Amino acid sequence: MWFYPKIIAHRGGGTLAPENTIAALQCGLSHGFHAVEFDVMLSADGVPVLMHDPHFGRTVRGEGQVALTSAADLGKLDAGAWFDARFSGEPVPAYEQAVHFCKSNGIWMNVEIKPAPGHEVETGRVVGEVTRRLFAKEIAAAERSASQGNASGLPLFSSFSFDALGQAAKAAPEIPRGFLLDTISPDWQERLEALGAIALHTNHKKLSREQAAEVKRAGYGLFCYTVNDPERARELLAWGVDAFCTDRIDLIGHDFAA
To answer: Does domain 7-40+107-246 match CATH 3.20.20.190?
Structure first.
């Protein structure tokens, strides 16, 4: 059930560029990564943007909330200076901008739907609708293909929010889904089945060899975050983990699994 790359650049460029920016996507690409993970949240006017934190202060300076700020005003914020002066002026990108960059450069996307608290349903629905529009040709091609069911040309949705991922499934049922669980709960398979998910995404620090084997026996893809130690990465792959994201794209290359 895993048709995708095995090694994925976390938030675009890992520790080498300001997260969730076009500069980060370019950084990952310059290191040979054609697979990235990034976070998507809604602005006050319902536009999906790349952002991890619902509140300002870490990756953008000042006080405020993403969900209370328009996309136009978010686009004026500096999302790079916090990381390094070299990235000063790097804007908060719209999700659509990131998709166009990735599609034009042959980059596969793990789109983590990251709703601000209280905006789970709307965020899942809008991200689903926008993604379905942006990938209309790829969806149609997959439906026409003799190998229908292999969705390697499409992005993958993931989210810790069951409600957000469920809404994304309704809005864009053709886009595959992975459910995020920090700790694998006893009802993990029931929740994946309810979402029609193809993969379980989980914290590698809390994953055991036995749990990995259980997920794989059940026929699901298994993805881990965020693996920054090469020795641990080799161990996880030996356990049958299908893929993981990393911040250390300088230590764990795009071809590490090979």
So the answer is: yes
Q: How far apart are CA 236 and CA 38, in angstroms?
A: 22
The amino acid that residue 51 corresponds to is M
**Nearest one of 43, 94, 91, 96 to 70, comparing CA atoms:** 43
pLDDT of the residue at 219: 98
Enter the tokens of residue 22: 């076009």
List helix spans (H) across the chain.
22-30, 71-74, 95-104, 120-134, 136-144, 162-171, 188-195, 209-217, 230-239
pLDDT at 60: 97
Q: How many residues does the chain have?
A: 258
pLDDT of residue 143: 85
**Closest of 24, 88, 87 to residue 52, by C-alpha:** 24
Which residues, in sequence order, are bridge partners of residue 25? none
8, 31 contact by CB (below 8 A): no
Residues 152, 114 contacting (CB under 8 angstroms): no
Q: Which residue has the tokens 């980060």?
A: 24
Q: What is the pTM of this model?
A: 0.96
Catalytic residues: 10, 52
Residue 221 has a CB neighbour count (10 Å cut-off) of 21
Mean pLDDT score, 132-155: 82
Instruction: Answer for the pair 80, 21: CB distance below 8 angstroms, yes or no.
Output: yes
- Looking at every residue in the chain, the average pLDDT score rounds to 96
Longest dimension (CA), the chain: 52
